[in-house]
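WARN retry 2 of 3 for item q-0093 after timeout on previous attempt; input resubmitted unchanged.
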Amino acid sequence: MTGSDLSDDIDTKLVSHVMNAEGRAFSDARYAAYLDEYATAFVDQPDYSVTDDEANYARISPVIDRLYFAWVADGRPKAPPSDQTMPEIPAMPAGVDFSPEMSREQIAAVMSEMTDQLGGVIMSPPSADQMPHVAPDLEALLPRDLTAPPLDVSSVAANQWGSSILKGALKRLDVRPRDAAVVNGMGGDGARTLTVTLYGIPGVAADRLAAEFSSVIYLPPRGKWTEREIAGRSVKWAAGQEFTVAFWTLDGLVVHVAGRADDVENAVPRLP
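OK item q-0093 returned
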């Protein structure tokens, strides 16, 4: 297992509850020293650009071993107390799910409620120039003029999408999350907000994707999947009280649209 494989398995979060007691104690005591050593070992490479390969592993593995053996030889000392006291942060509201189907107004309402519960902490979505674009070829499949205002489009690797359901489906499809990509486009305004999501999953046939993504795509409350023909294309369709969802699959690609029913129907012929 490589470091990247481990990262995928633990949802990219190497935190205390995935370590045993020895790992937690060592990490607490030597993490700051490790960061300094890591910066020295990779001083010739920009931050966050160190590739997961055998050469770089050979650089950093002896550093971790040396830190660990020194810590054991010292009697496994605990981390020194911090001079700074972190302010108490209120618990995050339970059950928050910023699903791709939510309109701008719905997201704003949830964020406002969270801001109130967090005692005035302001949370803002990234601006357009801060949005990630890891899959430009997939992004090019989305016509920006599907909506007015036009679609804002971004893309991330699937391991950065933040969906454990998607990661579970990819695992069953034998695809590593970092090898798949998710493109998200949101445009329009108010009740005419439309979201389009593309899941690029190389090497997987359309029928296998259709079977898995019936449980991955968010189903509107009281909605159920039905088969519809739109412009000669067979799509899975689910109508809810607030929005309608459609999706279909091609080899290596899932296309997912959500919004007002007529907007979804008009978008289908213009998408892959």
